[in-house]
Amino acid sequence: MNHLSDLHAFAVVAVISLVTVALRAAPFVVLGKLAANGYLRYLGEKMPTGVMVLLVAYTIKDLDVTAYPYGLPKLVSLSLAAVMYWKTDNALLSIGGGVALYMILVNGVI
Amino acid sequence: MRASPPPTERTDQQDPKGGAGEAVRLTVPVAMAYIPLGVAFGVLLTASGINWYWAPLSTLLIYAGSIEFLAVGFMVAGLPLYQVAFTSLIVNFRHIFYGLSFPIDRLRGRVQKVYGVFALTDETYGITTAGPGMHLTGRQITIVQVVSHVWWFLGALLGALLGQVIPESVKGFEFALTAMFLTLAVNAVRTSRSATLVLLALGAGVIGYLVDRYVVEESFLIVSLLLYVAVISGMYQKEKERAK
Question: Which of UniProt's keywords are assigned here (chain A) (predicted)?
């Protein structure tokens, strides 16, 4: 069942590729001017925290906490992954553990 | 610390083979992350109903981990392209700084240089600017980049093929995306050590959520990211004025 359009998929991949390459090439094109720009440096320092928090939020924004199972599989698995990562510093182990628990919960338990 | 001889500037001339083995060894930790993540990406993509070949194609054409996971959601939601462009700009913004310390002058010829910039990932940047990979020759840098790219491609290809044989009734692969961003968020918080930034992001997220839900569909990322950037821009202005 491949119902999603190849054209849109290609457009998405092309746009992301162009933007990413433009960002990577920017410092070579404007030769070091970026480093001297205090505002860009400040953005570079402050952006990752907020961007990553918002990306986590983006992936769980459609969670329904008002009806059974009250979004619990996601919230519980997310907490497990967070604690695992905080304690072990092992990204693969934590992602694997979180996904395994989540899949057990949504396929087997609920 | 052990005394070590000063690092000598190596060139392709001194070492005609360019130490290919050393370069490949440096990609082993990269492979340990890229292959499982690539598999998760491939499975997620096919489980979302997108034609399987977009997983390997995407790794060849984009080569920038997290945004490719997001691309799956964009394809499923049919997100407008201006929002795709804007989100990639914000999510990959950090890449604008990598070129400042990447040793591009060691790369010879146009093709090698262009590929060097195209494949300037977090990992390439990390390997070539710190630790044992700091003194690689141009040829070795290209090997590190190509081999890492191959790991990512193979992971995605394997995942895309696996995704075809996993029954459709099995749900939950999309959680890999949430968990991956979570680990990146933990890293970012550890670096910035700022609860203020987390709270600002959550505030921007709440507003983005309300706009997404009640005003414009699929606008969460653009609204919340713009708000967050606007607020930290305001903070920068204030700090600058105070410094005067």
Answer: Membrane, Transmembrane, Transmembrane helix
Q: Does the pLDDT at position B17 exceed 60?
A: no
State ipTM: 0.84
Query: For chain A, where are the alpha helices, taking DSSP H only?
Result: 6-29, 33-36, 38-60, 72-88, 91-104
Contact B158, B39 (CB under 8 A): yes
Other CB atoms within 10 A of residue A65 CB: 10
DSSP-based three-state secondary structure for A4? coil
pLDDT tens readout for residues A31-80: 667 667 888 888 878 888 898 899 899 889 888 888 888 889 999 999 99
From A30, A109, A102, select the one nearest A73 (Cα to Cα). A102
CA distance B54 to B156: 9
* Domain residue limits, chain B: 7-173, 194-244
Q: Does A30 touch chain B (CB under 8 A)?
A: no
CA atoms lying within 13 Å on the CB side of residue A88: 15
CA dist., res. B91 & res. A56, Å (int): 12
Q: Evaluate if pTM is beyond 0.90.
A: no
Q: Report in angstroms the alpha-carbon separations of A54 from A38, B32, B96, B104.
A: 24, 27, 20, 33
Euclidean distance between CA atoms B28 and B106, whole angstroms: 23
List pLDDT tens digits, range B123-135. Answer: 888 888 877 788 8
Q: Which residues of A fall within a CB distance of 8 Å from B177?
A: 59
Residues in chain B: 244
Look up tokens 């005394």; give the residue: B3
Q: Does A17 touch chain B (CB under 8 A)?
A: yes
Q: Which of B61, B81, B179 sits opposite A94 (nearest CB)?
A: B179
pLDDT (tens digit, 9 = 90+) per residue, B114-124?
999 999 998 88
Residues B125-163 as b or e (16 or more Cβ within 10 Å = b): bebbeeeebeebbbbbbbbbbebbbebbbbbbbbbbbbb
Instruction: Give the pLDDT confidence score for residue B144 in this predicted structure.
Output: 94
Closest residue in chain B to residue A52, using alpha carbons only: B185
